[in-house]
From TrEMBL:
Residues 381-394 have a biased composition (Basic and acidic residues). Residues 21-198 form the MobA/MobL protein domain. Keywords: Coiled coil, Conjugation, Plasmid. Belongs to the MobA/MobL family. Residues 314-333, 365-400 are annotated as: Disordered. The keyword Lyase does not apply. This is MobA/MobL family protein. Transmembrane segments: none annotated. It comes from Tunturiibacter empetritectus. It comes from the Bacteria.
């Protein structure tokens, strides 16, 4: 739905003129942002006719330190108009508001709003210094001096915003009438129009940040917007309002069906992919299980005599197999049986290892006990006798 939004901004609370001109034109570091539909510049003095951006660079360089390098109008364009109609309206507004006396750069942006619909608007950035026959040929440094191009005091008039707003509403209504759109807007506030139901739905300023108060305020504003959208516009009769609501409902149904079809298509593809993956996993698992069975049977078949119970059991299982390939259930049972036998074998080996350790410990204890007993029974031999015996063992000496 078309709305009336006209705001004035000055460079005293904004970025430098050259940077802002690049921003609205989506040039330089801002070219990746996109969302720009139209960019035009005009009424430039001779030094900037070949390169309009040079005018804003010169404004930053030569304008007084406390002076305004530019003034900007931000105006919401009707959603009901197509791109060509929007561009014509933007050009008309530029001509009507600035004429041929002020250098400007104008751009139309079409970002997506929260409702995922285009939010077209125009930026009209201009210098308040008048360009005429006496100033058009001035050099850039003289253009911005006190004795150069003069600023038009009309832009400082306190009634200028209301004047611009009224002119804009006339142009917007004319453009919609030309496009065959019945919708009309009014420059007056809802209260001035006697619409207390809409005047009560005034949006409060949104708090910044992600805190609970800011989120609650955003939710409240969204609710107000929804209530406002459901109220019939004052310029439409009841039949037209019903027709408009039906049209919106049909569009919403189509959008929901398209989204549902897209989601169903994606789900079907995921299901098919999952089935293919399940078949592949099943085949690999079956092959792996067969390899495990063959290796385990081969291992137990080549064991020692102590493994005969296990080997015999495996042979019986091999003989009990049918010539046909084993089923998945049979493979699972075989694997379960093998796991049990392997666990039994590991337990048996662990018991044998424990028994060996106990036997070694008992043998060492017995040896130590026998050695202790022999030392207690045999008297201690003199050191001299031990030395003589040692010499005899090496072939020295003649006797004890």
């Amino acid at each position: 739905m078309a709305i009336v939004h006209v705001s004035f901004k000055s460079s005293s609370k904004a970025p430098p003129a050259a940077a802002h001109a690049q921003y609205i034109a989506r040039e330089g570091q801002y070219q990746q942002r996109g969302g720009v539909e139209l960019v035009e510049s005009g009424n430039m003095p001779e030094f900037a006719q070949a390169d309009p951006h040079a005018f804003w660079v010169a404004a930053d360089a030569h304008e007084r330190a406390n002076g305004r390098t530019y003034t900007e109008l931000q105006i919401a364009l009707p959603r009901e108009l197509n791109p060509t109609q929007r561009e014509e309206l933007a050009r008309e507004a530029t001509r009507e508001l600035l004429g041929d006396r002020f250098a400007y750069t104008m751009a139309v942006h079409t970002p997506l709003a929260k409702d995922n619909i285009e939010q077209p608007h125009m930026h009209l950035m201009f210098s308040e210094r008048a360009v005429d026959a006496s100033t058009r040929g001035l050099a850039e440094d003289r253009f911005f001096k006190r004795n150069g191009a003069k600023k038009d005091p009309a832009w400082n008039d306190r009634n200028k915003p209301d004047e611009v707003r009224e002119k804009w509403v006339e142009m917007m209504n004319g453009a919609m009438q030309k496009a065959g759109i019945e919708l009309r807007v009014d420059a007056r506030s809802w209260a001035e129009q006697g619409r207390e139901d809409l005047a009560a739905l005034v949006e409060e300023k949104t708090l910044r940040g992600d805190g609970p108060e800011a989120l609650e305020r955003l939710a409240h504003i969204a609710e107000q917007r929804q209530m406002r959208a459901e109220l019939p516009a004052p310029h439409l009769d009841q039949a037209a309002a019903v027709q408009d609501l039906e049209k919106r409902a049909e569009q919403e149904v189509v959008r929901i069906e398209q989204r549902r079809d897209a989601e169903v298509s994606i789900l079907d593809k995921l299901i098919e992919k999952a089935r293919e993956l399940a078949v592949e996993v099943k085949e690999r698992t079956t092959e792996f299980a067969r390899n495990v069975v063959d290796r385990v049977e081969s291992f137990f078949g080549a064991g020692k005599q102590e493994n005969l119970p296990f080997t015999a059991s495996l042979k019986e299982q091999e003989q009990a197999r049918s010539p046909s390939p084993p089923s998945e259930e049979q493979l699972e049972k075989s694997l379960a049986g093998l796991d049990q036998r392997i666990a039994m074998r590991e337990s048996f080996d662990a018991q044998l290892a424990g028994l060996d350790k106990r036997m070694e410990a008992e043998a060492r204890a017995l040896q130590e006990k026998e050695l202790s007993r022999s030392q207690e029974i045999s008297p201690a031999r003199p050191e001299k006798e031990i030395e003589i015996e040692h010499e005899h063992s090496r072939g020295f000496g003649i006797g004890r």
